[in-house]
């Protein structure tokens, strides 16, 4: 079975994490990384693990208004320019009852900072009948536009390896 990693990223931090997770997954399975604007509306039976990630905006998944605000603050071109993970999940369909999921987000590294896009993503996947194979994971940035905290890319790669190793359907 394959893994599909779908991400939303404004400034590139979440994209880097998604690519690192996919690199970890690729140690045992075929893993494809897709920006949410290019993500399929239906996940087919060849996909055994769906990994979804996005940035935490206003304590949860991004909305049109928070993406507009991010665009106004941007000092570089945005990666995800259209709909985000929230809108994609609202239209997602799957043909596999055996599909498992894992979710992640990026968020500012401040103690006791509330909110998590990953928790919202996990909740929507559960509503779609897609069970979690691991707890939601957060990766940290130093400020609103990043960069990533040192060591987060390696941590994301290791998380991907652990996902591939712990998900029975993903075994070679």
Strand content: 15-25%
Average pLDDT confidence is: 93
**Residue share in helix:** 25-40%
Count every helix, treating DSSP H or I runs of 4 or more residues as helices: 5
* Element string (H = helix, E = strand): EHEEEHHEEHEEH
* Class from helix and strand fractions: alpha/beta
Q: Please outline the major beta sheet.
A: 6 strands, parallel
Calculate Rg over CA atoms: 15 Å
Structural description of this entry:
- The protein contains five helices and eight strands.
- By secondary structure, the chain is an alpha/beta fold.
- Strand 6, helix 4 and strand 7 form a beta-alpha-beta unit.
- The longest helix has 15 residues, at 152-166.
- The protein starts with a strand and ends in a 6-residue tail after the last helix.
What is the topology?
Blueprint: E1 2-7, H1 13-25, E2 31-35, E3 42-43, E4 47-55, H2 64-73, H3 85-91, E5 93-94, E6 100-108, H4 117-127, E7 131-132, E8 137-141, H5 152-166
Parallel strand pairs: 1-2, 1-4, 3-5, 4-6, 6-7, 6-8
Helix pairs in contact: 1-5
Features:
two-stranded parallel ribbon; 172 residues; single chain; 8 strands; six-stranded parallel β-sheet; alpha/beta
Short summary:
The protein has 172 residues and is of the alpha/beta class. Strands 1, 2, 4, 6, 7 and 8 form a 6-stranded parallel beta sheet that branches. Strands 3-5 form a two-stranded parallel sheet.
């Amino acid at each position: 079975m394959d893994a599909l990693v779908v991400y939303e990223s404004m400034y590139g931090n979440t994209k880097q994490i998604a690519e690192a997770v996919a690199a970890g997954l690729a140690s045992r399975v075929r893993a494809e990384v897709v920006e949410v604007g290019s993500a399929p509306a239906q996940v087919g039976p060849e996909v055994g693990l769906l990994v979804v990630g996005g940035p935490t905006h206003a304590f949860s998944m991004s909305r049109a208004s928070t993406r507009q605000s991010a665009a106004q603050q941007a000092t570089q071109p945005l990666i995800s320019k259209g709909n985000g993970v929230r809108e994609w999940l609202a239209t997602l369909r799957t043909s596999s009852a055996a599909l498992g999921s894992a979710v992640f987000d990026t968020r500012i590294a401040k103690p006791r900072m509330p909110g998590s896009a990953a928790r919202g993503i996990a909740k929507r996947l559960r509503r779609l009948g897609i069970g979690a194979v691991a707890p939601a994971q957060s990766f940290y940035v130093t400020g609103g536009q990043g960069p990533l905290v040192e060591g987060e890319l390696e941590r994301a790669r290791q998380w991907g390896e652990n996902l591939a190793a712990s998900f029975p359907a993903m075994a070679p």
